[in-house]
Amino acid sequence: MVLTRLAGLIADKALGLPTKAVPYEVRKDVAVPMPDGVTLLANHYRPSGHDEPLPVVLIRVPYGRAGAFGQLFAAPLARRGFQVFMQATRGTFGSGGQFRPFTSERDDGLATVEWLRKQSWCDGRIAMAGGSYFGHTQWAVAPYAEPPLTCVMPHITSANMTDRLFYEHGVPQIHTALSWSATIGRQERPGLLSSLPDPRDRARVNRALERLPLQAVDVQVAGAPVPFWRDFVAHAEPGDTFWSQADHDAGYDRMPPVSTVTGWWDLFVAGNLADYTALRAAGVEARLVVGPWIHGEPGELRMVAQTDAVWLEHHLNGGPAPSGKPVRVYLQQANRWLEFDNWPPPDVRETLLHLGRGSRLVTRPEVDAEPSRFTYDPADPTPTVGGPLLSPPGKQADNAIVEQRDDVLVFTGPALTGDLDIAGPVSATIHVRTSIPYADVFVRLCDVDRNGVSRNVVDGIQRLDPRTSAEPGPDGIRTVHVELFPTAYRFRTGHRLRVQVSGGAFPRYARNMGTPEPFGTAVEGVSCDFEVLHDSDHPSHVAVHAL
């Protein structure tokens, strides 16, 4: 008990929580029957010496009910006096059935909520907490629960997994998908270190993604087939409805109060912010924090723990509401936080960065500017560095290795005479003619410092596919709209803005093979010639929002 209390004290200090703790008891391996006969197991945390019914904080997680995840997400709330029910999702860590991610969380979650409300120790009020996959388990339940949940905290996740994560604007996020497949494929194997990060994982994933076809490379990184990877490669084609069960963005108006935390370098940030905007438009009470973090970074986890404690105290115990405005975001490179009433922030000024002659960024399109050209070769796919990834390294990186290639167009603006602060969505409109109908358009905004080092700020990709894209005009030109990631960022005095345009970003995204063959089985590719137009009749540009 002394060691447990000491571990709890250390954890609370690391998370920035009060160190005065409420004693609690843990009942392990609590069985919850599902309608199909499968039994899911949970650990039940309850304040010591309390016999009366209490509200329940439900956490549904595929990574284990105990160990690091229990200590990070359940125990800190239990030490704040909350009753917590941490359940292993189907097919993981003692729960029955098969773990096929994103396919059963609605039914299992709703059955668990119904079961909890029948227990003598539950007063009928249920909140849900957690981030990433166990943020998804909240979206799978909260819009459908009746009576409604009391509140939820779906951090670093998105209501829509298909378009925002799996196949971002039609392009498979293969690095994220295979990295996660490697993790879940090995997490329950015997051995003391089986659940800990392995520094060799990224190298294994990168080597595997170099192979073609991709259909079975999960075996190379996990040692055995992983159901999620097989579903991911089998259901990527336009019109496939398999993943509709993973998307819950049709129920914003049915959500209880929502508190969410994410990071500018978190791969879920675009979805997180889109969810927040839609929730507020639907009249739902919601709060948002966005910091300078990559997925699961310690600072992000500290913010999750701190905001959860305040949110639950307010909604379950009648404590004070969170202070400050509903939106709090970190302005990168300025080392300061901004607060807004809404997202996107009001009173911003749209600024267009036009692609110009001589690889320049200009303030207005230039008459008769000649098109810029490059060729994308799937046998030598355009690489990417940095960006929002599932795990480090990510964030900002020196882009020299990318910008020196002849399949990347680079347009650079003049040195800034003052700081330029932007906050909000970032988008691009690119007028392009391609030699084949199957192609990707990747756009990246960079910050070039006084020494000439170019570092990525935000980027986005859009797939061109005759099965889903509008036909080009009679001249073969398409107007392609690319949604880049949102941001809040300061370009400092003396720095320059730079825009990259290319045909891919490998291995973060699957290479475009230039054919209609599914990406998991394709082995032969076709090169694509790009012609990017940026004259006054075809004003290709990137749009940012200046504060």
TrEMBL record:
Protein biosynthesis in keyword set: no
Any GO molecular function: hydrolase activity
Ranges where the Xaa-Pro dipeptidyl-peptidase C-terminal domain occurs: 309-543
SUPFAM superfamilies linked to this entry: alpha/beta-Hydrolases (SSF53474), Galactose-binding domain-like (SSF49785)
Pfam families: Peptidase_S15, PepX_C
UniProt keywords, alphabetically: Hydrolase
Gene3D superfamilies, per the entry: alpha-amino acid ester hydrolase ( Helical cap domain), alpha/beta hydrolase, Galactose-binding domain-like
Descriptive protein name: CocE/NonD family hydrolase
Organism: Paractinoplanes lichenicola
